[in-house]
Task: structure prediction
Amino acid sequence: MGAKYECIVVGAGPAGSAAAFTLAKSGVEVQVLERGHVPGAKNVSGAILYTNTLNNLIPEFRAEAPLERSIVRQRYSLLTADAELTILDLSAAAFKSKPRENAFSINRRKFDAWFADKAGEAGAVYQSGIRADRLIRDPAGKICGVETSEGRVSADVVILADGANSTLAKQVGLRKRFTPDKVALGVKETLSLPRGAIEDRFNIEADEGASFKYLGEPVHYSPGGAYILTNNDTLSIGVVLRLSDLSVKGVKPYELLESFKNHPRVRRLLDGGVSQEYSAHILPELGYDHLPQLTGDGVLVTGDAAGLLNVVFHEGINLAMASGLMAALTTAAVRENGGYSSTSLKAYNKMLHESFVMKDMKSAMGFHKIMEERPDYFDKLLKSAVRFATDAVSITDKPKNEQIASAWKTFRSSYGWTALAKEAFRLWRLVS
Ligand SMILES: Cc1cc2nc3c(=O)[nH]c(=O)nc-3n(C[C@H](O)[C@H](O)[C@H](O)COP(=O)(O)OP(=O)(O)OC[C@H]3O[C@@H](n4cnc5c(N)ncnc54)[C@H](O)[C@@H]3O)c2cc1C
Result:
């Protein structure tokens, strides 16, 4: 070590490689430090790759990147112990061609390695198996390098892309430790299944993929969810919920995953699947109004390290890439004008706010408020909705209109007209 680069990027996930790729393309000397033995070795996602940013970075990615299946079917269900109410099941051929072909299942290990190779081809230098331990400041207090497990590297500016736990952002005071209600844990298992079985069970063609998402019972009716995602010849299955909910419910993550896999409405989809891999990772669920400081003198924070995760649509990879791209564009522009002060790097903040990243983070604020203030929506309301649907479509001796009226009466008995009106008003206040 002991070298000097114009920019050091810490972390070779989607944020780090998007930053490195853009910097290298702009002619900036950049080194990426990755603690895993190769990029992607330690990374966990569902994973659906939303490709809006990648499309701008590497327009030919469809032909080159290790993509699994193009997601053409999206299903969202409410699950109770013995029933499933699907609230949306959308399969559309439009998702198989441009401009709507924008979601693919990926294997993060393969994808991150490919993305790092692309940044390497553009001129970025990757150093894997090296942990960044501490940021170094010059006498004026500006960040001027990184202390690593292999020694010191100097740089004019450092981009932090070290993921949700970002010890470095905490170390330099840009971010506080996340409280348990602001961080979720995702546990995931990969099961192998023959391609044909996947296509039959999920009603998709050979080149198509499906994403099934569930609320309710799999996460003990807390504000989290479970999912099944089809890859080429594997399924990704996972549950995600906040650490505070894990503690309140007194459950262990692997128990939740096991019980989800054995749910009567789920187990046949997975039948015969052979376990390939088990992993767990944290996700930042801060919300827009709790985001950390994104720049300091000589440093920018991107991706999960910056809390950029859209909890409503489960998007993190594309926000990470977009923030990495914008941090790099800011760095390259500031380099032309000289000086990497916190004030000049604030252009990064502005760029993020003008883009879909902060606009979506802001739109998701209402959902964060619901998670904080009305967790019962994920419990009582969800169970009542499933009960209403079950009662409404049951065949009895009653005429249909009486049957539906009776189901509605049962639904209202758990809320009442006044309570329902109040809930609707509260919901509107929370999300508006
Ligand atoms: C179970 C689960 C499912 C998810 N599903 C989806 C999904 O379907 N779609 C989606 O868009 N998002 C999903 N996400 C979120 C997504 O994974 C993240 O938002 C995304 O990975 C963030 O990218 P990043 O580059 O900021 O961080 P990361 O991907 O976490 O990358 C950080 C990198 O930094 C390295 N690193 C960390 N510390 C150091 C250090 N000190 N020194 C050197 N290197 C270091 C790590 O090894 C890693 O390579 C999911 C997350 C989980 C946990």
